[in-house]
């Protein structure tokens, strides 16, 4: 087995602690790159994505690399989650620090009606 990077080790640690606390709730997974930010609501028991939003979807403005773009994605994922019938989730920040764009997306999703 290849040696995992520090990022991958942090991602595994976060994900394993989430599984213990999830209690059957879907997971709001966030991924960010230098240019874009992505969010998905995933039902791990069924292995299906219930809702998704990103800066690549139609109607998104901006480059995707700003806090304002992350706020827009957070509002979109909350709206898509409501349409899918999801109100409570567990937040999966992946290996990313809960700061900046990741925090902005989480706060906007909470304002949009998702509970976590």
TrEMBL record:
<keyword id="KW-0687">Ribonucleoprotein</keyword>
<dbReference type="InterPro" id="IPR005484">
    <property type="entry name" value="Ribosomal_uL18_bac/plant/anim"/>
</dbReference>
<dbReference type="InterPro" id="IPR057268">
    <property type="entry name" value="Ribosomal_L18"/>
</dbReference>
<dbReference type="Pfam" id="PF00861">
    <property type="entry name" value="Ribosomal_L18p"/>
</dbReference>
<dbReference type="GO" id="GO:0008097">
    <property type="term" value="F:5S rRNA binding"/>
</dbReference>
<keyword id="KW-0694">RNA-binding</keyword>
<protein>
    <recommendedName>
        <fullName>Large ribosomal subunit protein uL18</fullName>
    </recommendedName>
</protein>
<comment type="similarity">
    <text>Belongs to the universal ribosomal protein uL18 family.</text>
</comment>
<dbReference type="GO" id="GO:0022625">
    <property type="term" value="C:cytosolic large ribosomal subunit"/>
</dbReference>
<comment type="subunit">
    <text>Part of the 50S ribosomal subunit; part of the 5S rRNA/L5/L18/L25 subcomplex. Contacts the 5S and 23S rRNAs.</text>
</comment>
<comment type="function">
    <text>This is one of the proteins that bind and probably mediate the attachment of the 5S RNA into the large ribosomal subunit, where it forms part of the central protuberance.</text>
</comment>
<keyword id="KW-0699">rRNA-binding</keyword>
<dbReference type="GO" id="GO:0003735">
    <property type="term" value="F:structural constituent of ribosome"/>
</dbReference>
<keyword id="KW-0689">Ribosomal protein</keyword>
<dbReference type="GO" id="GO:0006412">
    <property type="term" value="P:translation"/>
</dbReference>
<dbReference type="InterPro" id="IPR004389">
    <property type="entry name" value="Ribosomal_uL18_bac-type"/>
</dbReference>
